[in-house]
Amino acid sequence: MLFNSLTFLLFHLILVGLYWAVKFQVARQIILLTGSVVFYGWYYWPALILLGISMLINYGFSRWIDSAGEEKKKKVLTFAVVINLASLGWFKYSAFIGETMVGVLATLGVTIGSPQYSEWLPLGISFYTFQVIAYLVDLSRGKVACEKSFLCFGVFKCFYAQLVAGPIVRANELIPQLKNRRRFRAGDFYLGLYFIIGGLALKVFVADTLAQFVDFGFESPSNMEIATAWLTLYAFAAQILCDFWGYSTIAIGVGLMYGIKLPLNFNLPYKATSLREFWHRWHITLSQWLRDYLYIPLGGNRTHQNRNLFLTMLLGGLWHGASWNFVIWGAGHGLWLVVERIIPDRFGELPGIKALKWLLLFNGVSLLWVFFRAPDFGVAMEYFRVLLIPPYTMQDSPPDTLILMLLAFVGLSFWIGKSLTDRRFLRWGLARQVSTCTVLLLLILAFAEARLDFIYFVF
Amino acid sequence: MVRRLKVFLVVMLTLLIGLECLIRANEATFAALADKFLLREELIKQASDETEIMILGTSRLLDAVDQRVFAEAFEVRTGQQSKCFNTSIAGVNVEILHRFAQRVSEKEGVKMVLIEASTPSLTKQPVNLDGQIVEFTAKPGPNENRFADRLEEGLRGWIHDRLALVRQRKALRPKTLVKFLVPATSDVIDPNLWDRKGVGRSIALALTRGISEVKDDFLIPTVVEGRGETFEGNEESEEAIASFMIRLTRLLQEAGKEVIWVAPPVGEQAVPNEHYSRRIATYEAVVNELETVLLNYTARGLGEEYLRDQTHLNFEGRNQFSVVLARDVSEVSQLREIRGDKE
Questions:
Q1: How much is the pLDDT for B214?
Q2: Structure pTM?
Q3: I need a labelling partner for A288 at 20 to 30 A (CA). Which of A69, B22, B132, B330 fits?
């Protein structure tokens, strides 16, 4: 079920009504679990089998870790992580690994047949796998208590608000909220409603409208002139932010309508003036996951900091997708972070420097998006050629709508961006609340041309 | 906060119901705003009675003729003030052109109609001339016949049928809403400028420029005048074009309008085009039968400096051609005589 569909809105309203109509938290958990199963199976019901198996196995692992002694705990945890990563690897990376192996062996003169791999990528597998790994690791470290109720564990594993594309929620954030009886708070409900409207506006109005220019541009970069190519790149930077930020904001809004607070996933990332700051603002829950469960176990700041940083970002890139483009994208970010760490920032306070740093950061991040969006390495190189290599042609002006939509993105970010990151909406006057929501609703309605899937669904 | 939430929901609902009522009461206008052809038809209907010359065509004639430059140059040649409206529009097909011609034929003030003699598409495109067709273009899921997809489509259809706000949602786009200005300002700002790339620059240029001097290397047309010879069809597509031309010309002639067909200029690479030559031959043959005039500017190609692409003029080309066309039309036109007869 897509957040930007009428079916979802109807489904969600019915479920919220039922949730608040019943008094017992267990009944509410049943409603949430049933709803989540319907939500996930709605798109492709056989995926429920995998989700169900993952739920059962990981519940078993959690109980096993909880009952095991200190020595055995580590072994069980390692086994559990390997099983989870193997499942993720099979569904997401088997084709990539297989094809790479065939290619490498072919260059060595060894010819083998194409290996078997999964042609089906279960929706949200990267997100729910990471979430459950974090739970098992925290459990083994004693940071979180074992959840003995399978019902509650089930809702934690597949709460429909964040199941498919995050935010990646920690057990100690979500499970207590699921277990303790929630009291209806009008403020949360009100804010949730606004977040859903705001998130839909980001997705439907900005991301989906810009998508048509981005798709056209990346289909054949050589057909564009330099100005259009740069604007199309900025359009993708805006599209991917609004697509994912929109999804996360709707997810947080959906949670709030149940009185459940989910963590913030985006905090105006293009305001950052360093890449480090960017990753503190972009896909925050993934950044924190990578820090806690990859960077620190690799050695963190204690030893080989640069290597750890680079490897973390490289693997973070690979998490986004099984292709060399994502590896390069991750490596690019990793290298940049390392350089940023090595070169001391001596000019930070000088006038104009902040603006210059922002300009460099935004354009640098945008340039790296080329690898992220291009269907293959060849197209990425072609795009870079148009962007950077002379001769530059400027015979045709870029489409008006593209320019207007980029301005609309900037305007919308300034207008409502902050209000989608905290609770300030509740402090606004009624007139401002109503006018903002009316304009956003009309924008959603006017631009609801087609239901486009969310980009992060495939990650 | 509960009270605030209730007030918020009531106010929002009231606003949306109010908007729904407003759109229902003016649904045809909103439909026209969201559809460029309907808007163009509305503009033809609303054109002032002083408009004596109308131009019908595709993007080619739209790019080739600046109505204000044409009218000013025509006035210079004839000594009489004439107002012109270029109704040409990109993506037009013969059905829409015929519909526009019907509206033009109903305008009593219009004396002369210039029609593009090039290649309007004969394919049947989905035409939204009745103003009620607004479709959801939902992306089909992996299995289009699933219950999930049927439910989603059913819900969309149900809401679409009941809410004008949803039916006319495209009219709510900011860029479309700006089009409320188009009919109101059409006497000052050429309505065609709103659809151009770089609308601000186009409007500024159009409001500030005057008639340009025609350069020596600009085109001289091949003029074909009708002699009443019967057209004998050759190929199916050419017969279709011929039949369309005959239908359109007769419709306008019966309404007392003078009809002149214009084949707008092309680039040097487009001139030797075999298909083009055959089409022009068809036009010439039909013009012979209809006792009207064809001004053919395609015999010699224009240089790059006048072209946006091989079949469309740029700003400089448009300015030059508007003056040239006014000169040539004034020479072949009967408008002076028509006016003279009436006076």
A1: 65
A2: 0.76
A3: A69
